[in-house]
Give the backbone structure.
Amino acid sequence: VVASPSEGLDAGAAVPWGVPLGVLAVAVVAGVLLARRLPAVRRGLPLAVLAGLGFGTADALLKVFTGVGSDEGLAGVFGHWGIWAWLVVSPTAFLLQQSAFHASHLGAALPGAATMAPTSAAVLGALMFGERVRLGWAVPGEVALVGLMLVGVVLLASSPLLDPEPATGTR
């Protein structure tokens, strides 16, 4: 692994998590409102991106409360704020993903969710848990490849091959 992540801080406090959870909530509301304005076949990508952000956040939340279970047991897990946040974020992400699949072709919706989930989880790992990412010669290449991946997701989602009706108008 080029980035070589390492173990970071214990980020179990609820207050710092208010920022990414609040950003996610605003993004979900704004994204759903935006998706509703788009043509039906184009709704899948924004919904899938939101689902990916939700799944990445849910992954990070799992790390928050599972550490409590090894220290305090099952009662500690159910008494921790993280499980309750996870119980909101995870079903919301699932609903967004299913809505994306329903709104458009699988080829348009799946890449958005599959790209954003690990990306957002990695960003939250660095920001919220203090996980260190090795910097150096490979970073510009990694950034370029992530950009290329995102361009590919947009191109795939907007492909005319995914339209339900043929472009020629003949059948």
Remarks:
- The CA atoms of residues 12 and 63 lie 9 Å apart.
- The first helix runs from residue 14 to 37.
- The mean pLDDT is 83.
- The two ends are 50 Å apart (CA to CA).
